[in-house]
Amino acid sequence: MRKKNKIIVAVVSVLVLAGIVAGVWPLNGYIESPGEADDLSRFVTIDGKKDTAKGQYRITSVFLTQANGFKFLQTKINPHLSYASEADVTGGESSATFSKVQDFYMQSAIANAEQVAFNKANKPITTQYRGIYVLSVSDTSHFKKTIKVGDTITAIDGHHYENSDGFIKYLANKKKGTTVTVSYTRDDKSGQAKGTTIKLPGTKTPEYPNGRAGIGIVLTDNVAVTTTPKVSVDPGQIGGPSGGLMFTLQIYDQLTGDKLANGRNISGTGTMNANGYVGEIGGIDKKIMAAKAAGSTVFFAPYVKPTKELLKYEEQHKTNYMLARDTAKKYAPKLKVIPVQTFDDAVNYLKSGTIIKTTDSTH
């Protein structure tokens, strides 16, 4: 009997040990959880001075941690945690390259924020468009071996444009297999590469019914900005493009005398292009929870008109605004979610409480 008990204890011990090992063993993916809602006055100085106003603009983030078995199980019981494969998060790039790409996105977001804020405030600003940051090169690109992440494309066939749209349109209607010459800089050295165009998947639009041609890269603008007064932005460890809107609000309000925040604790998210348009981002439900934890009462969320086709590809099949609104309604009822399509929409709300009209196909 004792021998039998010893066998049972041994088997149970092995199973427990195996369970512990399985639980802590790293998985090939990440756990996404609510991050912080950081006060942007910590990151932005204008003419060497920090913002001392009572109101706060907060940039919200999502935390990424290496997944393991135990953490993966937590995603099944905690609605604010989710699992994402490494490929979905990094696009198949190394962690070092992924960090570099996030930094490029942030630099571009800050440059766009300065342009929009200074133009809106009628303050002096000059820009030098250097070209296109290469954020990734697709496996089907004929430039896969010659163009690298971090390169800046300065011209195609000798043509330099003042924004990425110019480069995109130049290539858009070319036939598949057309030879083009790409000029680029890498580590302050110039180079050229020749290759042929490809048809880009998923680019059929009314403007391009047969889809666009391109060279198979993901890009963001590389712009040098000079302002008067001088703006200094240090985002710390935060990367990516999603803080564009909130950086713009912080810079603009600081430039114009801190009148818009009016003592409020304001969070939000969304990309910002140089023309003042706000774009969608990922993980907005987790950013709502970060804003709640920081005590915010207002949250700006990117708005796009929902359609059946669009909702197929959206996170949880909801647009940013829909997901933010529904998350706040359930978990953060004191947080008012404000839809915005442009920087002006956010300014108008802060000035007068005006909210743009929205269409929600799910109600």
Give the averaged pLDDT, no decimals. 89
Question: What is the H/E string?
Answer: HEEEEHEHHEEHEEEEEEHEEEHEHHEH
N-to-C terminal Cα separation, in Å?
A: 66 Å
- Total E-strand runs: 18
Shape: globular
- Secondary-structure class: alpha+beta
Beta-strand share of residues: 25-35%
Range of helix content: 25-40%
Radius of gyration: 24 Å
Biggest sheet overview: 6 strands, mixed
Number of helices: 10
Contiguous uncertain segments of 5+ residues: none
Oligomeric assembly: single chain
Which strand order does the major sheet show?
5-1-4-14-17-18
Structural write-up:
The chain is α+β, with helices and mostly antiparallel strands and 363 residues long. The chain is built from ten helices and 18 strands. Helix 4 runs parallel beside helix 6 (244-256) and helix 7 (284-293) packs across helix 9. The longest helix is centred in the N-terminal third of the chain and has 26 residues, at 95-120. The N and C termini lie far apart (66 Å).
Summarize the structure.
By secondary structure, this protein is α+β, with helices and mostly antiparallel strands. It has ten helices and 18 strands. It has helices spanning 2-24, 69-74, 86-90, 95-120, 164-172, 244-256, 284-293, 308-311, 320-331, 343-352, and strands at residues 26-39, 44-46, 49-50, 56-68, 82-85, 125-137, 152-156, 179-186, 189-196, 198-199, 213-214, 217-227, 231-233, 265-268, 271-272, 278-279, 298-302, 336-340.
